[in-house]
Design brief:
heterotrimer; A alpha+beta (about 375); B mainly alpha (about 350); C alpha/beta (about 150); A: about 375 residues; alpha+beta; Cytochrome-c3 Hydrogenase, chain B; 4-stranded antiparallel sheet; C: alpha/beta; Beta Polymerase, domain 2; elongated
Amino acid sequence: MIEEIGRTTEGDLIINVGPQHPATHGVLHLVITLNGETIKKVEPHLGYIHRSIEKMCESLSYRQFIYVTSRMDYLSSHINNHGCALCVEKGLQIEVPQRAQYIRVIMDELTRIASHELWWGAMAMDLGAFTPFFHAFRERETITDIMEKTCGARLTMNYMVPGGVMAELHPDFQKDVKDFIQLYKSKFEEYNELVTGNVIFQNRMKSVGIISKEDAISYGCSGPVARASGVTCDIRKLYPYDIYNKVEFDEITETEGDSFARYVVRLKEMQQSIRIIEQLLDNIPEGDFQAKTKAVLKLPKGEFYQRVETARGELGVYIVSEGGTTPYRIKFRSPGFSNLSALEHMVKGLKIGDLVAAMGSLDLVIPDIDR
Amino acid sequence: MFSLENITRIIHEWLNSHFNPAFALLSEFILVGLASITLFAVLGLSLVFMERKVAAVMQIRLGPNRVGPKGIFQTTADTLKLLMKEGLVPDGADKFLFTLAPFIVMIVAMLILAPIAFARNFQIWDINIGVLYLSAVSSLSVIGILMAGWASNNKYSLLGAMRSGAQIVSYELSAGLSVLSIVVMTGSLSIKDIILSQENGWWIFKAHIPALISFVIFIIAVTAETNRAPFDMAEAESELTAGFHTEYSGMRFALFFLAEYINIFIVCAIGATLFFGGWMPLHIGQWQAFNHIMDYIPSSIWFLGKTIGLIFLIMWFRWTFPRLRIDQLLNLEWKYLLPISMFNLLLMTLVAIMGWHF
Amino acid sequence: MLNEDLKLKLTEILPAIIFEEGGEWLNAFIPPEELKAFVKQLRFSEDLHFDYLFCLTCIDWKTHFTMVYHFSSTLHRHNMVIKAKIDRINPEIETVSDIWRTAEMLEREVYDLFGVKFLHHPDLRRLIMPDDWEGWPLRKDFEDPVNMIKL
């Protein structure tokens, strides 16, 4: 996994981390310049999983391109699809029925919890504790089973369409989600005991990878990375979409900006997601799950931008349309891209062991960055 | 009742009655050598299997359960696989040292086996400086590790070996001081004397507080000595390299691998001997009736039970805690454990002099 | 600040600015030579305070390119979009990476996919495509008979 690829004249060592990792993170290739054990420069090399999604979408219709985006940040696939559907609806001025809005938000929050669970397990595994990974997947399995009953898939759930959702909820959905919430509440205490309160974890994560508030804004960080440095940037609060303006939840911010703060922000976000689901689950109104739309969609000439809050941060869907059945240009503003650009700033001057902790706390999913 | 010392006594008398004493002694040597090699093989296999099953239980899964009933032949299959792999010696490596290193680690492990008492009167060699011998010989394994790292001709193996070496040498101090505190109470370095002195109760109960502190420091120190998590930064997969045994494959790797588990068994055996009485059953002071009942359980079962309990504890650590960074690891030893263990030694001496133990 | 006030303020700073109607946020076209001075004002003036650059991209209109910058302010919570038309044969524009650090990687991506040269960029080279790739993939006239399948 590690090989030396060169030396600069001052005796620095240049090594590769990746692109194949024993843990998760996907295919991230970092070229690190070390002086002894101290990191001097970190350079990400991207493109190992570049699938030219933006170019591909230029030849797909407005109904088809949504499903390619599930493969971008595959851990928040519902939220990606939601963002694309909202952008198309913005262009066509479609009114989404209330029932569909409730279902979309519940699915989004379940996806957020599943994504944070996987992040939690992978981060603990990077730091050396192997057991939390299995515990995290136990909860994630419950969520993917719920998704599978309704959407038919476990990872890339192609469930959102412009106008609503694709199919009606499974009859067991509400009961399953209620059982899951019961299970989750009892397990959440375990997580805190096992990992958060452990002195070794805290020593590995506190004061590691600090980024200040101004730097976080300048580097374009969003999501838990920016919120841990004190930036209030939750799109669900600032520019609410669907029924986020009707539910009550807190935006979690911390001030230290180190890896431990990012960790705590994500854990508390999971609890807020549970709170949102509880408020919505029993009150899903009756009605259509999909608005009536034409079979072939044609957006009017113009530009449309929609922002959604994925598990990683702010995803932007920018559609430039010339009036045809396929978009003229689509740009996906991915949260991981900007979060990754802040990595070098965070770990300069730290040791190699700290790089792993900082990278884990950023929660990078490389297909999201490479598109 | 069943006792291992009967077996040795029968063999000894049979040999002496049929052959001249020199030949009998020689054949006893050979028998003991074969027995310890067999013990190693069996121990290695069962401990690896135990580790995998314990890990599985803690991670809510099943563990190996296909090879043999309940998966008990898994490690045999793994060892066969390692035997048949190509044993590659890297190009620029120092061939002699490269081949020698795993053997040194193995030989040291075998040498340490000598003074350990497995049951009543079932000890290979009751040397009068038993504990000192154990500390001294176990330090030799560092040479094997450094040799492996150097001879691999790989910068990262060398780095990993240096880190391992630094870690082991540092934690030997705390382990040694903890062991010394029990020797202060016993007044003798010989293993047999230490066990016999626990006839009226184990040292961890008799010498209450200082012995408890010693035990905790001892467990932490031996986890670090055997390079186990949470102190396995030098060989962690998601860190820099696979440590000093990166370049080893095939049978040589199998030797390192087995030597690690045997080291765990040995340090747990030492811990059980010093703090929990070795093969001595649980006696409480002068309660003759209770002691008599406890004596019915054979001493070898007592010894095995205590050792396996401590091994389980060490495995529990691995699957619960994350890793310490290398500087945090050395910090822990030099700034915290060493001063505490030195103070504890003084405390134990005070307790011994004033007679504040049971 | 409301759109009307923003329009007044921006026209004060740069009279050559042209506003585009229709659209969720304020859209403005500026000449590319004025970009650097203009965005410095956007970033550092107190009542504008656009400190969050959240999208930087390029659109290929077959006769020219349009660079698109989406700005947001974390203090005043207003958003706007700046566009600049640049030449297609020899596309060049000033970098903004010294004002917003996020632009470093975003501009590298635009260079990689469109071929737009960013003047005074600290490290302009390909990001996603392999280092020896020929051609600019996201341009409309990009042909790749091996990898591209035309439906």
